[in-house]
């Protein structure tokens, strides 16, 4: 801190008005982060036991696949072209995957209820009508593609591309991931068969689950890169404490 | 300590104690209604318990999806870990005429059924999907006797909570609760796609539990035990006991 002449007034904690992120947003953000990392790790472990994808109701090593991932497998009966078989880690991976799925679903439920009640979505995530023009949208996309450092005003708000992406992740990608996950459960399908038939079958659900996961990983990577570009320490501090580093924190 | 924070501390303390007591009571009640799985402990206990409890409530009267004959897979993959068994070879040489299934434990009449007896029991055919936890699947028509029929022939005692079923393969067994054991689609299967059940698919006798993932459908069934506790039948594996996923 360059400015050592802090007055007493500055030391008094800021009022809640000065919070960039509410406590609930911060807590659910970090709970979701832990869950997503657990889902990603366990999901990859489960995936390598059968890195083939199908469309429709059924598929196995004796049927043609939609596509194969060019990776080795953890089971000997999958012909991957590799001469070795990876260790089978499905036991704990499946347990971790379903536990993290419960945790992220419950976290998401609390977050969405809170977001609707406090108008978090309407006030902070829904783009303003005036911003929903192609010019603004493509300008934001271009600045994202160049990984430009956002200006300081953006510390207090989200740009249009950011808003639309967050809404897509919250209201499309996560719900579809949960839907396609449930559509792989024979017990759930015994009650709601439509969850699979609407998608074209059990194997279609598995394939869509994979693509949604890829999109979520893509989001995660871009999100972290943009956080780094915007200033990793500042953004981390804001997401942990809720407060924005004031100008005097800069030398 | 100000009066306000003391009051807050006391109410928080009461709320926490009340919450803990409420949770303990909820678990006790849930256990009585068969909503707590035997592998409730450990770091994954919360997830597996939530899955089991919610699916037991949801699937009380549900039937696994059945398919039309045209949807039967042309290439049903038979994953079989190779095992050497002189007993199996001898039984196979005799056309499985001497294959028997013992039913014991919490039953009124411990029994032993031959394949001929099992085939003479009322049979049911159903076209259901077998989905392996690895991710692959196939659809086949399975023919067999409902497990509930075999259990009632031996006289299930009211204390029975689980059915443990053993494979001829060494150290291979699994178990289900009574809800799945008495479910009309849970079959002791001896036929597949109109013919005999092949060895690759677990012939001569396999248990099919179509509302759960494939690993609960154990092959080469030789013994069925009814029990009120799975403690002595712990498999020690890392796979979840309940696999409705």
Description:
Chain A has 251 residues and is mainly alpha-helical. Chain A has a single domain (14-249), classed as Fumarate Reductase Cytochrome B subunit. Chain A is built from nine helices and two strands; from the N terminus they run ααββααααααα. In chain A, strands 1-2 form a two-stranded antiparallel ribbon. Chain A starts with 7 loop residues before the first helix and ends in a 10-residue tail after the last helix. Mean pLDDT of chain A is 89; it is low at 1-16. Chain B has 245 residues and is an alpha+beta fold. In chain B, β1 (100-105) and β2 form a beta hairpin. The longest helix of chain B has 30 residues, at 3-32. The model of chain B has no long low-confidence stretch (mean pLDDT 93). Chains A and B meet through α3, α7 and α9 of A and α2 and β4 of B.
Please tag this protein with its features.
heterodimer; A: 251 residues; mainly alpha; Fumarate Reductase Cytochrome B subunit; elongated; B: 245 residues; alpha+beta; Sulfite Oxidase, Chain A, domain 2; 5-stranded mixed beta sheet; 5-stranded antiparallel beta sheet; 10 strands; 29% helix
Task: Tell me briefly what this model is.
The complex is a heterodimer of chains A (251) and B (245). By secondary structure, chain A is mainly α.
Q: What is the CA-CA span between the terminal residues of chain A?
A: 7 Å
The share of residues in helices of chain B is 25-40%
Q: Largest beta sheet of chain B, briefly?
A: 5 strands, mixed
What is the arithmetic mean of pLDDT of chain A? 89
User: Per the principal axes of the C-alpha atoms, what is the gross shape of chain A?
Assistant: elongated
The CATH topology of chain A: Fumarate Reductase Cytochrome B subunit
Give a count of the beta strands of chain A, DSSP E runs of length 2 or more.
Answer: 2
Quick one: which chains have the greatest interface? A-B, 39 and 42 residues
Mind telling me the CATH class of chain A?
Answer: Mainly Alpha
Helix content percent band of chain A: 55-70%
Query: From N to C, what is the helix and strand string of chain A?
Result: HHEEHHHHHHH
Kindly report the name of the CATH homologous superfamily of chain A: Transmembrane di-heme cytochromes, Chain C
| Fraction of residues in β-strands of chain A | under 5%
The stretches of 5 or more residues of chain A where confidence is low (pLDDT under 50) are: 1-16
Strand order of the largest sheet of chain B: 2-1-10-5-6
Following the backbone from N to C, one meets helices and strands of chain B in this order, namely: HHHEEHEEHEEHEEEE
List low-confidence stretches of chain B: none
**At the first level of CATH, what is the class of one domain in chain B?**
Alpha Beta
Largest sheet of chain A: 2 strands, antiparallel
The CATH topology of one domain in chain B: Sulfite Oxidase, Chain A, domain 2
Category from helices, strands and their pairing of chain B: alpha+beta
């Amino acid at each position: 801190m360059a400015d050592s002449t802090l007055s007493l007034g500055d030391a008094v904690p800021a009022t809640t008005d000065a919070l960039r992120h509410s406590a609930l947003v911060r807590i659910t953000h970090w709970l979701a982060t832990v869950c997503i990392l657990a889902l990603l790790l366990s999901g990859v472990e489960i995936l390598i036991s059968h890195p083939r994808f199908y469309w429709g109701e059924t598929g196995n090593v004796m049927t043609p696949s939609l596509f194969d991932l060019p990776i080795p497998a953890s089971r000997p009966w999958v012909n991957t072209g590799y001469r070795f078989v990876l260790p089978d880690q499905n036991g704990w991976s499946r347990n971790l995957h379903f536990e993290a799925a419960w945790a992220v679903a419950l976290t998401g439920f609390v977050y969405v209820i809170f977001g609707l009640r406090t108008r978090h979505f309407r006030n902070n995530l829904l783009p303003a009508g005036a911003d929903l023009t192609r010019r603004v949208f493509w300008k934001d996309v271009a600045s994202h593609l160049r990984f430009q450092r956002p200006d300081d005003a953006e510390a207090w708000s989200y740009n249009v591309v950011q808003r639309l992406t967050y809404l897509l992740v919250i209201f499309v990608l996560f719900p579809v991931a949960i839907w396609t996950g449930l559509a792989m459960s024979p017990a759930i399908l015994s009650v709601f068969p439509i969850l699979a038939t609407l998608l074209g079958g059990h194997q279609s659900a598995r394939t869509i689950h994979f693509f949604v996961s890829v999109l979520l990983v893509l989001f995660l990577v871009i999100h972290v890169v943009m956080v780094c570009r915007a200033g990793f320490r500042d953004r981390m501090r804001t997401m942990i404490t809720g407060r924005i580093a004031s100008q005097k924190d800069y030398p | 300590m100000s009066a306000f924070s003391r009051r807050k501390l006391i109410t928080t303390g009461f709320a926490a104690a009340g919450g803990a007591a409420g949770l303990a009571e909820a678990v006790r009640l849930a256990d009585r209604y068969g909503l707590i799985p035997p592998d409730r402990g450990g770091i994954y206990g919360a997830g597996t318990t939530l899955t089991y409890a919610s699916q037991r409530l949801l699937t009380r009267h549900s039937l696994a999806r059945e398919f039309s004959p045209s949807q039967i897979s042309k290439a049903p993959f038979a994953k079989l870990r190779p095992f050497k068994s002189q007993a199996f070879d001898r039984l196979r040489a005799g056309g499985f005429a001497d294959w028997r299934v013992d039913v014991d434990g919490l039953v009124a009449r411990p029994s032993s059924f031959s394949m001929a007896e099992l085939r003479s029991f009322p049979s049911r055919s159903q076209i259901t999907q077998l989905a392996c936890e690895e991710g692959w699947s196939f659809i086949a028509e399975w023919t067999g006797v409902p497990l509930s029929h075999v259990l009632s022939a031996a006289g299930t005692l009211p204390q029975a909570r689980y059915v443990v079923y053993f494979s001829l393969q060494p150290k291979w067994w699994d178990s289900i609760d009574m809800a799945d054991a008495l479910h009309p689609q849970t079959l002791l299967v001896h036929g597949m796609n109109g013919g005999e059940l092949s060895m690759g698919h677990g012939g001569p006798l396999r248990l099919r539990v179509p509302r759960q993932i494939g690993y609960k459908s154990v092959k080469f069934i030789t013994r069925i035990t009814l029990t009120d506790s799975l403690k002595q039948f712990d498999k020690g594996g890392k796979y979840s006991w309940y696999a409705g996923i």
